[in-house]
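Handout, tutorial session.
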Amino acid sequence: MKLFCTLTCLLLPAAAVFSQTGTVTLQGRITDASSGAPIPGASVSFSEARIGTVADSSGRYQFRRLRTGHYLAEVSSAGYSPIVVHIDAEADLVQNFSLRPSVIENRGVIVTGVAASTSTRNTPVPVTLVRRAQLLEAASSNIIDALAKQPGVSQIGTGPAISKPVIRGLGYNRVVVVNDGQRQEGQQWGDEHGVEIDELSVNRVEILKGASSLMYGSDAIGGVVHFITNVPVPEGTVRANVLGAAQSNNGQVGVHSNIAGNSNGFNWNAYGSYRSAADYRNRYDGRVFNSRFNERNFGGYIGLNKHWGFSHLIVSSFNQRIGMVEGEREAATGRFLIFPESPLERAATNEELDARKIYTPSQQVQHYRVISDNAFRAGRSRIKLNVGYQQNIRREFGEAEDPGTAGLHFDLRTLSYNAQWQLPERQGWQTTIGVSGMYQQSRNLGAEVIIPEYNLFDIGGFLFVQRSFDKSTLTGGLRYDNRSLHSLPLGEGGSARFKDFSRSFGNASGSLGLSYRPSADVTLRANVARGFRAPTASELAANGAHEGTNRYEYGRTGLRSEGSWQFDAGADLDYDHVSFTASGFVNRISDFIFYQRLRN
């Protein structure tokens, strides 16, 4: 933690080393392509630079003190097709935009979860972008539930508050969840462990389908779900929002509020949310006892956006309490039992079925994170540096006579890093060199133990290139990773419950893809990628009864890394009143790791 605080203090003022010369003014007008009328409120944003503005009543916009260089701008407004425009800002520039009216607004948006921001039409891998408005329209009980309606995306759920993303049939540790540029590291190996992200704090989601180990290393053989929360409001504005939500089945109620501002490049956001749900109903059981949950979350960021780049400090706190359904019933009446198989066993009353008090068994999940997200321009190059610290605390309570003492108590701490150097473009080639990885410590603080305590160190380096031609874009890259895991010993009853052992996994990955645009409305794409997944500590060394899954889990220390080869091909057709997407893939995974019943 001391190391992280030191890094953060160094990163925030680091921009001072970059020259403050070479700035330009970019301005222009945004109009309707059909009528020529101005479009008030239309937005112009540079996703990589984390800056944006809106047009005034006459459709005019302006950026002052914009550093010279190459930018990818997204221009959008409700009721129009968004466009993506390459801008070379070498001198003061007047750039006008025209938007076509459309009932479909999914064209031309920018993807940031790759080495360099690019239009969805230029990326050879299938990408789905979900905006905040779409998330709010989905009646859901958690953030993954809100995404499961997207094509190729589903979920595995063990209750209304617990869901995991599944992309093309792969989930758990085969899909990487990224939150503001950092891998979300919790206990994602477990069935009853969800994603610790406040749904109402998310501004945008990017779903990358298919092997993505080139950018994200181990685990991304199914795909990546990238959540983005820190989107600054336009310059010179302060915005406040209050959002309420309710659901009838389980009586869920929620409220979210935030306030954000941006003054002369200094921008900030603060939010808080609360959600509470009673037991859900089904037609067979009525109220399902102890399927209730509640959440209390808060967070925000402060940052500085200037012509040299940006530096943001992001914090969040996720706190969730979840009841765990046992389903035991009283033989005579068929009513759900409270505290079954204990001296306190009794049938639940109607009042207790309608209440929101969470009974044993239950679990409490806390996830804290601090992220320093930075991007600087150095001459014609661009440097991105993202360093984050996370702490995931998960406790399971199972004793009716001692409900305040956790049987299982996981404490996982992760320091992660991601650095990229985008070199100056040469002869049309865009090149990015990067390194990313993490250091983890997992400790058991409860009386019950399933997996050993361990230390993990992960590092990977990659090279990514992209070349755009008149109607096509070629991308490719190579990466090598090394992951080292040291499992700590634990004795029990005179024998070794967990042995002291170390494993190291080295893996190469890469991708090569092409997108082709035969017309303004048609995109064809193909991509081949190599991915991998190193075994987790639970797969290598688990040794204990897991009440949440009703099984005894036993690891195998000799497991090898999973490897995958995946081929994608697809086509997009985007017109003003209809949009059509078709894609197919072939995925071959070697050394696949799965649960197997023990014979003895």
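The second record follows below. Compare its token runs with those of the first.
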Amino acid sequence: MSPRMRPPRRAVAPASLLLSALAGLVLSGCGGDPPDARDVEAGDPDAEVHAPPVTGPVDWHLAGGRVVDGSGSEPRLADVLVQDDRIVYVGPVDPDTLEILERFDATGMVVTPGFIDSHAHGDPLSTPAFENFLAQGVTTILLGQDGSSPPAGEMDAHFSEVERSGVAPNVAYLAGHNTLRGESGLGFGSGSDEAALAPLVRLVETALEAGAFGLSLGLEYTPGQLAGDEELAAMARPVAARNGVVMSHMRTEDAGAVAGAVDELLEIRRRTGARVHVSHMKVVLGSDPDEATGILSMMQEAREARAAGTARTSAGTGGVTGDVYPYLASFTGIAILFPDWARPPNDYDAVRAQRGDELAAHLRDRVNARNGPEATLFGTGPWAGQTLAEAAEAEGRPFEELLVALGPGGARAAYFVMDPEVMSVFLTDPHVAVSSDGSPTMGHPRGYGSFARVIRQYVLDEGLLTLEEAIRKMSALPASIIGLDADARVDVPRGRILPGWAADLAVFDPAAFIDRADFQNPHTLAEGMAGVWVNGTLSWTGGAPVSGARDGRMLRDRGSPPSPEATTEVLSETEPGPNREGG
């Protein structure tokens, strides 16, 4: 239904309201200072209210909520007005001065920008509803991760098909290196000279011209692991020319080696000036927070040094960023357990016949080094929902023999190989965004719970983050990393609650926003989102999607560098200083 066809002044009641005293308690991490001159308490008879500078009917009046605008600044009590797909006003409102079509009572709750997932998976043509994301307040997802995407030659057509078929959240894409390597004909070959790399570089340019926001690398996977420095730099140069971003699943995430893998990514920035981003930051089997701190220090040094002649971009991030999801288990194919010589393009049947004992020994040692078979939980395949240890016991044979029988493509699994203190170091860094690395179908709860889990565990329970900093990491920061906050690159900027910006909004009571998914039931929706708007249309309320909601857009990068003036504020108030589904 068009916004202009809605009946006038229909009030929408949220599922639950938080009492004012509890709201103050939830937001106590913001400090006890009185509001400044801009913070006018709605409903206060002494407060100044006036007619906002709005012409024509207001499609939505979000009334009485505490606005957490995405910048990292303290919440303030304010109303939000929406016309069509834009926010048109934020502040005190006298509703009698306006023609309001629909009103949403946000009393006792927070109003935030819709969350932006900078590392997501899924197919908008097969699962366009993406209810797992809407239930968490996620209104934009970035796909094409870990080196896997639609082929460059089909990308424009794919984007057009998404536009025609409709999708619930906004969708943006990266171009996947592994996909492009196969498409170029390079495949599993060497790309060390300019002539061999030329077709690959042209495909990167084709994908960027279609609207991809940058390039994704999957250097732990085949054939991406075959790429050397020259290939990586060659692909990054056209990305840098458009101020896109190079996001990478590291060549390794293992303790003692991941710092070197991060430096490989930083070398891309040093050589090309491209903005670079570490996907799903972790230290596998690492329990020393100092290792995480050391990695972040490397990234800070790269921000300070910058590539010669490259301006500071990406909202004050210095062009070097990362993301993290709030779980201690990764999730990817069991190929990660197999040696290179048993993975494509090698003939697995021949490997098994000729080197079967050696393969079994490798798998036994590899699994035992990763906390044993009890720490591997199958998410797909014949043993989905069971650990490797349980499956082996049921089969009555050693776990390594079960893996040999499955083969590198036989299943996907969760691996409990991360340390909470190490993860917390990454989560609290101001240049690291919150992501899910999840999808509607993945056998890991992160696709259904990451954003709610950060609020519940790391804001309310542990106080590791303030509410406003957590919201910044879910909205303005990922928007700036991707390039969604710049008029020069997108039709409507996203990630903040500001007049003229996209009306992607979430309203919820932080104390009621709860992740319900776990490893036994990974597809359980989060609870507590009272309302989610995508491009100005209510898409989720009362614990369910609005029927038929397909209000998202296929976002295409127009390829112009973002204006520094438009994007330098995101970190200014908080900065203290320093489809392959996997990771």
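Points raised in discussion: The mean pLDDT is 88.
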